[in-house]
Amino acid sequence: MRYGIAIFPEKKIQDTANSYRKRYDPHYALIPPHLTLKEPFEANEDDLKQIVGELRKVAAETKPFPLQIHKVSSFSPVTNTIYLKVEPVDELLKLNERLHTGNLPQEKTYTFVPHITIAQKLSHDEYSDVFGSLKMQSFDLEQTVDRFQLMYQLENGAWTVFETFTFGEEKN
Amino acid sequence: MRYGIAIFPEKKIQDTANSYRKRYDPHYALIPPHLTLKEPFEANEDDLKQIVGELRKVAAETKPFPLQIHKVSSFSPVTNTIYLKVEPVDELLKLNERLHTGNLPQEKTYTFVPHITIAQKLSHDEYSDVFGSLKMQSFDLEQTVDRFQLMYQLENGAWTVFETFTFGEEKN
User: Fold this and answer.
1) Where is the active site (chains A, B) (predicted)?
2) What's the CATH number where A47 sits?
3) Could you tell me if residue B172 is inside a domain?
4) What is the pLDDT of residues A7-20, one digit of tens each?
5) Could you list the residue range(s) of the whole structural domain that residue A156 is in?
6) N or C, which terminus of chain B has less Cβ within 10 Å?
7) Between A28, A158, A169, which is nearest B32 by CB?
8) What's the complex ipTM?
9) Any chain B CB within 8 A of the CB of A18?
10) pLDDT tens for residues B111-155?
11) Integer angstrom CA distances of residue A116 from A31, B145, B163
């Protein structure tokens, strides 16, 4: 099965992201607004047990940290994905690093740029329009992150949460 | 905020449900296939802490149980919702009862009929067609359930998982 690890921001931030995603993100219906902590990876049931154990350890060692959004940015010219830029605080960068060490799959295709996608797969003209207007806007969104989620992907491409990992708590 | 509690069945059962939901369920994009354990309820942040504590207790006291699906059924004539009928094993009925006691909101609009919705809000003719063909079919789906999830609802009607509660584990 295909698994992924993400942070789902609180309702207010998700609602803000969805107000754009509804029109500009074809993945709108497949997953709620999220910050990807680890790119999708394949695992079988035996791997999964070990991975869940490791994720519990990671969560226990992680302290809650701030998630701050002040502006929109884009991966252009690599792709025309537009996203809410999440400030790369130390704890978030360390958590991303930690999720690629130990028994966890270590492949990393990209440098980690913390973001919440709000538009993707736009035509060139649409991209210019949307990004042109959004890049002028400032945002003042902030919350404390205290958990991440392990999800698996269904045949239709949608993601279901398998387990929540709460920071600073040791599960037996 | 509006919260709900559900079981997400394993991938195979979700994929089966989605093969129908895609065509027949307008809620297809709002939530993965699920078995509702507790109807949506309102709670503020203070309530939530207490509720999460109580849900951890409930999960710790619950033992994994089988989820079995053999056929499709319908809520007709009350509504024309069609669903995968989930066998009402004792542990599942007790879990539903327990989620309406103690500090948890106790309102119950309906008698608990364990089900995974695959079609709803169909026209009368479409309902007759779809149910007519599905009610002849037998299913042989079974898994062990060892967790439930607390979700909150976004402005667009979609649900995000807030926390997973694994049976038989005491979280500190």
Assistant:
1) 34, 115
2) 3.90.1140.10
3) no
4) 999 999 999 999 99
5) 2-165
6) C
7) A158
8) 0.90
9) yes
10) 999 999 999 999 999 999 999 999 999 999 999 999 999 999 999
11) 12, 32, 20
